[in-house]
Fold this protein.
Amino acid sequence: MTGAEDESTIRTLIVDDDPDVVRMHRLFVEAADGFEVAGTLGRGAEVEPFLAAEPVDLILLDVHLPDANGVDVLERLRAAGHRAGVIMITAAAEAETVRSALGSGIDDYLVKPFTVVEFTRRLQMFRSSRATRASESGGTRDRDAVDPARQAAVDELVGGARGEAAAGVTGGPASDAPAKSLPKGFSQPTLDLVAGALRELTGPATDHGTAAPMATPSATPDASAAEVARACGISKVSARRYLDLLTRQDRAELRPRYGSAGRPEHRYRWRP
């Protein structure tokens, strides 16, 4: 009931019922050095049978599944003796949920929305931690013992989740979209991912060019749908749809770029 012991590759199981999210997570995992996708599942009840049949080192476990809460799934896995690592995928407002999962052996958490940079960083942190545990204790770990560093991190998250997310601590901005349902055919996780990528690529927009934006060193004045698509691991068509939605929500600014001939290129910039 343990994961695969080949330290060169960490076999990762993705558990999420949103096909867009699964596709993005698969791309991110496959692009990370030393990781491979062991499988993808959409329901909590499918996890135990999969672990019984396949070696898995790490589970990316969404909190909200159609048939179960991710924390309940985690507790059942630990009770059954499964010791694969778990990174919980949660929302900032669910920090208390993450806290309750610590005693059941959660290894880390990712707060939506997050960027591919933050996603990859957490995977590499897990890889380093796993290697350290293996060298110090022969690969075993007391899953009932709460790591003080992880506890402190979640305490900080609980105390200021929304503010930290807005400041980019979790790898992307807090969702500031209007509290209403999205148009048909749109997914909130994908919208959050595109918003985070656009903000990371371009930084806040200026007010008619009168003030210098507070942007990251790598930020550019604007970004195309193709550039955002590459950052998110989604198709250009999907990126364009979500960027246009962000523009309609007044969260992004459309900046047509006119060339010598032909139709103008649509460029986008994040609005503060």
User: Anything to note?
Assistant: The chain has two domains: 10-167, 188-270. The mean pLDDT is 75. The two ends are 48 Å apart (CA to CA). The longest helix spans residues 116-137.
